[in-house]
Amino acid sequence: MNDRTNASEERAAGAERVADALRLDGNAAAGLLSEIFVPDVTAARATCAHCGVDRPVGALLLYAHGMGVVVRCPSCDGVVLRATRTSARVWLDLTGATRIGIPIAAPPA
Amino acid sequence: MSDATATVGRPLAARPIAWRLATVVDVVPETPWARTLVFDVPGWPGHRAGQHVDVRLTAEDGYQAQRSYSIASAPEEARIALTVERLEDGEVSPYLTGELRVGDRLELRGPIGGYFVWEAAPGAPLLLVGGGSGIVPLMAMVRHRAAALATASVAARHGMPARLLYSARGWDEVIYRDELARLSDGDPTLEVALTLTRESPQAWTGFRRRIDRMMLAEVAWPPPERPLIYVCGPTPLVESVASALVELGHDPSRVKTERFGPTGERA
């Protein structure tokens, strides 16, 4: 019994470590998103569809996987954005963002 | 026609980010595990301090590996410098830190990321907190600041105070050690604090532990001074520093973070 408890605790701790290992910031998605959008979307503000909090995409939490990224809201942990690259397509799922506000570039000096 | 265009407003951004062929023009050893690669990149559009590039390597059989590396050089410099730390089980960093030579070429795209960036301007004090190779984008900010100060008025010079708190495992692992000493010696408004977490020389008088709340309270400006804060390093360091700063009363929206993952090699 004790052994089993320990094993499951170890597994949980291991899973947590894996999640920590892969957790980055939204700004790490800038390269992949630049294949879809011309403006830099990590400097844009996104409103989370789950909790309504609005913050820069670069300040969201990014979980990197082999083929792409899942970007979550730090306030409610809801998925805001998913992007995946396959050999033929780059996929983007933005159902977790009710809106995205892209800053207008400064005029040339 | 051009009048009509002008009334529509300013464009959202310049142009898509393209892959470019970069040539290695210099290789500078920094520590036993890290070196700086200086590239000549024809058509480089310029960058902001804190941005990164994607590097793509293609093997003879067509297999490709891609990694992100922060830019270490100031926007004022014509060439792009990346400082790469060797990871024993890394796929890309052993090649970049071991085999790449002057004259070699690789594919690079950038500059990337408009969030973790800093533009030199008088105003709020600047606090930089880095761990390991997390110093790299912060160094671009320190260099950018030094370049801006060189042409600034005396008043502007005093309006841009900066502090850097940098955690390294040992004295030999402090990247840019001499340059940081030189810059802080020559600039009373730049303070550099080092903490050596594993090995320190006997005569070491600086911090000897991981960055904690007490250290941040000692080094950082008090929250009412509203410093602009950039934190970069391995994920566990960034998360503990960011939480401690918020607990100390700093506004979370003024704390920008860049996690490198636990190993320093980003996705």
Uncertain runs of chain B are 1-8, 263-267
Q: How do the helices and strands follow one another from N- to C-terminus of chain B?
A: HEEEEEHEEHHEHEHEHE
Q: Largest chain interface and its two residue counts?
A: A-B, 30 and 30 residues
Helix- and strand-based class of chain A? alpha+beta
Bulk shape of chain B: globular
Tally of DSSP β-strands of chain A: 8
Mean residue pLDDT of chain B: 91
Question: Assembly type of the shown chains?
Answer: heterodimer
Fold and architecture overview:
The complex is a heterodimer of chains A (109) and B (267). Chain A is α+β, with helices and mostly antiparallel strands and 109 residues long. Chain A is 23% helix and 32% strand. Chain A contains 2 helices and 8 strands. Chain A has helices spanning 2-22, 30-33; strands at residues 23-25, 45-48, 54-56, 61-64, 68-72, 79-85, 90-93, 97-101. Chain A has a 5-stranded antiparallel sheet with strand order 1-4-5-6-7. Chain A has a 3-stranded antiparallel sheet with strand order 3-2-8, with no helix packed on it. In chain A, a hairpin with a 6-residue loop joins β5 and β6 (79-85). Chain A is globular. The model of chain A is unreliable at 1-5 (pLDDT under 50). Chain B is globular, with a radius of gyration of 19 Å. Chain B has helices at 2-8, 93-99, 135-150, 154-158, 177-185, 213-219, 235-247, and strands at residues 19-29, 34-40, 52-58, 64-70, 80-85, 105-112, 126-131, 162-170, 190-199, 228-233, 255-259. Chain B is α/β, with parallel strands linked by helices. Chain B contains 7 helices and 11 strands. In chain B, β8, α5 (177-185) and β9 (190-199) form a beta-alpha-beta unit. In chain B, 41% of the residues are buried. The A-B interface holds A 20-28, 30-31, 34, 38-40, 42-43, 55-59, 62, 64, 69, 102, 104-107 and B 9-17, 52, 54, 68, 109, 112-116, 235-236, 253, 256-262, 266-267.
List keywords for this structure.
A: alpha+beta, three-stranded antiparallel sheet, 23% helix, B: 267 residues, six-stranded antiparallel sheet, 7 helices, 24% helix, disordered C terminus
